[in-house]
Amino acid sequence: EAQLVESGGGTVQPGGSLRLSCAASDFGFHTYGMNWVRQAPGKGFEWVSRIIVGGRKSYFTDTVKGRFTVSRDDALKTVDLHMTDLRTEDSGVYYCATDTSTFWGQGTQVTVSS
User: Fold this and answer.
1) CB of 99 within 8 A of CB of 37?
2) Average pLDDT, whole number, for the chain?
């Protein structure tokens, strides 16, 4: 069964860092651009980042530029979101998803709180 599984969430103080990881199985991971999307409590989904097929380009929403980076390893079928200088407004459930939303993970909770 094709799936995406996120990990690495947790609670961190403002200014801290976390690395989220998303592991894919049973589909052609290397053929998909990959995205990170988050949902804050009581709010809608917000696209955060995208990394293209092959990993040579990545994109970020303005609020995380300069603080987040994204990488992928097609051999391991993983995509990682490296988050630094975290702010309270970065809190939420983080999901990885393929382009065209073909596959979504179950999400991992990130809480930034003092």
Assistant:
1) no
2) 96
pLDDT greater than 90 at residue 1: no
At 61, the amino acid letter reads: T
Q: Which residues lie closer than 8 Å to 59 by C-beta, 6 or more apart?
A: 49, 50, 51
Among the listed residues 86, 74, 99, the one whose alpha carbon sits nearest the alpha carbon of residue 8: 86
The answer to whether 34 touches 99, Cβ cutoff 8 Å, is yes
First to last CA, the chain: 40
The answer to whether the CB of 51 falls within 8 A of the CB of 34 is yes
Q: In what order do the strands lie in the sheet with 3-7?
A: 3-7, 18-25, 78-83, 68-73
Q: pLDDT digit string (tens) for 57-87? A: 999 999 999 999 999 999 999 999 999 999 9
